[in-house]
Amino acid sequence: MKKQLVNLENKKIKDLEISSGVFEIKLLPDIIHQYIRYQNAKSRQGTHKTKSRSEVKGRSKKPFSQKGTGNARQGSSKPPHFRGGATSMGPVPRDHSFSLNKKEKKLALKSALSSKLNENNIVFLDKVEVKTHKTKDLVSILNNFDFNSALFVYGDDKIDDNFKKASSNIPHVSLLSCSGINVKDLISNHKIFIDEKSIDQITKRLSWKLTSQYQMKKHLVLSISQCWQKNLQIWINLINIHS
């Protein structure tokens, strides 16, 4: 699958070969939704708290006598139905995060990238660098592209200081390392700009690969099957000799 590689002036430099297994798969909305739920749940602090009966300020003394007042009998002024009382079964600090399989995470990222590419909202750049740190110069350069919000994805190398300083004052323009790409940022931004260095790193990260343990097991099974084939051939030869 070939796509154009352009510079920040939106001029074509060359054709770029990208992996169809990463940038051209079927859209899976349910997997994307699950990944965003996973991200939102993981980012929750979980510090919500209400006071129980043991934590409410006040005495545990019986507020009035058992009989003779005409009121319902009460043993304390801390129950939930009293003004200033405790909260019944209220929230307590807890962890809201839940686990998500590695395969689901990879599939969600590939589906989000493919969706953006089908909408022509991914731009492949040769490099994310500018000559000056002036914000107005970068704004004039980015006017070559039509977008409401943009996410610039760079390689694991250090981002260009001039580009970082110039883009910090532009609203709706974000920077993100290729090792930190996630579905929420990909979906929430209109245009995704990916530099040439990070394309291979993203492809390598999201490609299906056999683990070393699986390869060892596969090699072991093959060696055992080859050994059985040799033994079987020996037995066949012995039978033929004796017959």
Per-chain topology:
Layout: E1 2-6, E2 12-17, H1 20-23, H2 29-43, H3 102-118, E3 122-125, H4 135-142, E4 150-154, H5 161-167, E5 173-177, H6 183-188, E6 191-195, H7 196-206, H8 212-242
Parallel strand pairs: 1-3, 3-6, 4-5, 4-6
Antiparallel strand pairs: 1-2
How is this structure best described in words?
There is one protein chain. Helices cover about 40% and strands about 10% of the residues. Strands 2-1-3-6-4-5 form a 6-stranded mixed sheet. The chain contains 8 helices and 6 strands. It has helices spanning about 20-25, 30-45, 100-120, 135-140, 160-165, 185-190, 195-205, 210-240; strands spanning about 1-5, 10-15, 120-125, 150-155, 175, 190-195. It has a domain at about 1-45 and about 100-205: Ribosomal Protein L4, Chain: A, CATH 3.40.1370.10. The protein starts with a strand and ends with a helix. The protein has about 240 residues and is an alpha/beta fold. Helix 5 links the parallel strand 4 and strand 5 (about 175). The mean pLDDT is about 90.
> How does the overall form come out from the CA principal axes?
flat
Radius of gyration: 31 Å
On the 0 to 100 scale, the average pLDDT is 88
Unreliable residue stretches:
none
Write the CATH architecture name of the domain at 2-44 and 101-206.
3-Layer(aba) Sandwich
Helix tally equals 8
CATH topology of the domain at 2-44 and 101-206: Ribosomal Protein L4, Chain: A
Q: Strands of the biggest beta sheet: in what spatial order?
A: 2-1-3-6-4-5
First-last Cα distance: 61 Å
Mind describing the biggest β-sheet? 6 strands, mixed
Percentage of helical residues? 40-55%
Instruction: Quote the beta fraction.
Output: 5-15%
Q: How many β-strand runs?
A: 6
CATH homology superfamily of the domain at 2-44 and 101-206: Ribosomal protein L4/L1
CATH class placement of the domain at 2-44 and 101-206: Alpha Beta
SSE string: EEHHHEHEHEHEHH
Give me the secondary-structure category: alpha/beta
Oligomer: single chain
